[in-house]
Amino acid sequence: MAAAGLVALALFAWLIAPAGSSSARSERDATPAAVQVEAARVTRQNVPVYLDGLGTIQAFYTVKVTARVDGELTKVAFTEGQQVKRGQLLAQIDPRPFQAALDQARATLAKDEAQLGDARKVLARYLILEPKRLASLQTVDTQRALVAQLKAQTEADEAAIENASTQLSYARITAPIDGRTGMRLVDPGNIVHSTDTGGIVVLTQLQPITAIFTLPEDTLGAVADAMSHGQVGVDAVSRDEDGKPLDRGTVQLIDNQIDQTTGTIRLKAVFPNPKLALWPGQFVNLRLLVRTDANALTIPAAALQRGPQGTFVYLVQPDSTVTAQPITVANNSETIAIVTQGLEAGQQVVTSNAFRLQPGARVRVLTPEHAPGAAVSAAPPQVRGHQAS
To answer: In CATH, what is the architecture of 43-57+206-387?
Structure first.
């Protein structure tokens, strides 16, 4: 009897055990697997805030060198594309006619000075004789007028010499600025005229060089405020995929009116251009540093999500679940966002696989060495503002 009871008990235990195991396995199967995600800490750091615009490079100075007198172009003293200094000889016009005119003016002055000297001596004699009534008052006055006339003539001769000397100097054409020569527009042997509009060469100053660019009109306040606190830095960046930095300069001025057709404001920046990386007519992207937000609360831009209620992030909880946390973003770029409300430093936000998540979902945060692309170094944090259209 007792043996039969033990057998029945064992049979009952055998029947119950598989069912219990199946129930536990079903419960485990019903629990959803944790989603593998990457996460980043909410951190505080100094973040530079940039405004992006499109600009055109222009020469700091552009001078069309032309002839100021008529004559034969006897010499071209520059090489196309040469860097020249101010005052350096560029071209020479036949100086002989102008030298002859100068010599003639000097000879005329010498003749008139000799006549003036003689007239002054005669006047001196008359002045000695006049008190003794040996020379009439009329004679003295006439001689005095002759002296004044000859003196005025010598002054006119001196002006003629100065004019002839100036005309002679114009035969020697020199560089008015430091710059680079362009293509030669007239060959030696041609007759050039002061009325010619084509010129001999175009000279451009490339060091320093300027950029004219535009920004949306609603950024005017930020730019003006930055300029009121000192020089505003601006970077010229190439327009290729690499976005290679070309040079760093400063904003020179803001134009005095807004273009109503485009809703933009024009700005002028100056670059030292030591490596001649910037060239007149070149299109470049300009990044203007308007301010640096000190100790700003930041997260990667990849963490930002947008829903019907606005911007939010998936916040990782201590129990490895996530919640949808609404946040307020001041500025953001392709890499980083500045958060003004909704997060605290040290919290973790999800930066990948967010499309697979919903509030309450379980996650498994990948360590940096197991995260995709972990070997790629992060770029320095920065925030860009509006982009000019």
So the answer is: Beta Barrel (2.40)
